[in-house]
């Protein structure tokens, strides 16, 4: 009796002869491939879970369903900066000069804090100013230089010596041989007991203006401070060695 297809036993997947060619059993490769795919999928899920942990604040198991919060835009009101930017250069230069004069008046009245505030307001004008002519550039540089120097003087009075040095450096960017900037930097460094830099800037100032009495007095004061410091160091070392 002939055997029909329906009479043959069904082949299981593992017995599929099409997956075995010669001595090569491709079923093993399929198994390895599936395992690698599953491992790769698990790795991606783990990476995604870790990403979610960075922003999801809920106390639960983090998965791909965790929702990232919307990116918030800057909440700061930039309208004042925009208004200042859009003003004509001539108006900004006038405003800066006005603030500088107010600062001068406040300083003469003994209000260093108010004066420093006015000078900063004046300098703020220049953050958004782009001169159109050489004349405007000269006026900007002049007002800016005076504001840095005056602000440095305010900070000397307030004993904010690091700020003094910063403002003087910015002044020197505009005028590389400015005597007031050299002198105030020398004074600030002396107050910080940095005698090397103090002497450096006093000397630079004297090179530019050797007959300036204020500079000569500053150098004498510095030399006195150096002698006092050296004497204290000698006494300290003497006491240290005598106690051993």
Number of DSSP helices?
9
* Mean pLDDT over the full residue set: 82
**What gap, in angstroms, lies between the N and C termini?**
121 Å
Helix content: 55-70%
Give the number of DSSP strands. Answer: 2
Kindly name the structural category: mainly alpha
**Biggest sheet: strand arrangement:** 1-2
Tell me the β content: under 5%
N-to-C series of helices and strands: EEHHHHHHHHH
The profile of the biggest β sheet is: 2 strands, antiparallel
Radius of gyration: 39 Å
Outline the structure in words.
The protein has helices spanning 26-55, 79-86, 89-108, 112-125, 134-157, 161-174, 179-191, 195-208, 213-242; strands at residues 20-21, 24-25. The longest helix has 30 residues, at 26-55. The protein is mostly helical. The protein has a two-stranded antiparallel ribbon. Residues 1-14 have low confidence and may be disordered. It is flat and about 100 Å long. Strand 1 and strand 2 (24-25) form a beta hairpin. Helix 6 runs antiparallel to helix 7 (179-191) and helix 8 packs antiparallel against helix 9 (213-242).
Keywords:
244 residues, mainly alpha, two-stranded antiparallel sheet, 9 helices, 2% strand, disordered N terminus
In short:
The chain is 68% helix and 2% strand.
Topology:
Layout: E1 20-21, E2 24-25, H1 26-55, H2 79-86, H3 89-108, H4 112-125, H5 134-157, H6 161-174, H7 179-191, H8 195-208, H9 213-242
Helix pairs in contact: 3-4, 3-5, 4-5, 5-6, 5-7, 6-7, 7-8, 7-9, 8-9
């Amino acid at each position: 009796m002939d055997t029909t297809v329906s009479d043959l036993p069904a082949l299981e997947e593992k017995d599929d002869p099409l997956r075995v060619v010669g001595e090569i059993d491709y079923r093993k490769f399929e198994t390895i491939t599936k395992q690698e795919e599953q491992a790769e999928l698990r790795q991606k899920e783990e990476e995604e879970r870790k990403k979610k942990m960075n922003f999801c604040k809920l106390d639960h198991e983090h998965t791909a369903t965790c929702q990232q919060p919307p990116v918030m835009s800057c909440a700061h009101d930039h309208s004042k900066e925009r208004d200042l930017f859009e003003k004509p250069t001539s108006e900004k230069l006038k405003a800066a000069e006005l603030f500088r004069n107010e600062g001068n008046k406040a300083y003469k009245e003994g209000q260093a804090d108010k004066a420093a505030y006015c000078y900063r307001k004046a300098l703020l004008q220049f953050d958004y100013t782009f001169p159109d002519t050489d004349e405007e550039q000269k006026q900007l540089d002049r007002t800016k230089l005076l504001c840095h120097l005056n602000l440095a003087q305010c900070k000397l009075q307030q004993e904010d010596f690091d700020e003094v040095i910063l403002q003087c450096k910015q002044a020197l960017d505009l005028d590389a041989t400015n005597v007031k900037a050299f002198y105030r930097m020398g004074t600030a460094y002396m107050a910080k007991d940095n005698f090397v830099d103090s002497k450096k800037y006093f000397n630079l100032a004297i090179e530019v203006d050797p007959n300036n009495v204020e500079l000569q007095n500053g150098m004498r004061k510095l030399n006195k401070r150096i002698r006092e410091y050296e004497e204290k160091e000698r006494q300290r070392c003497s006491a240290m060695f005598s106690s051993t």
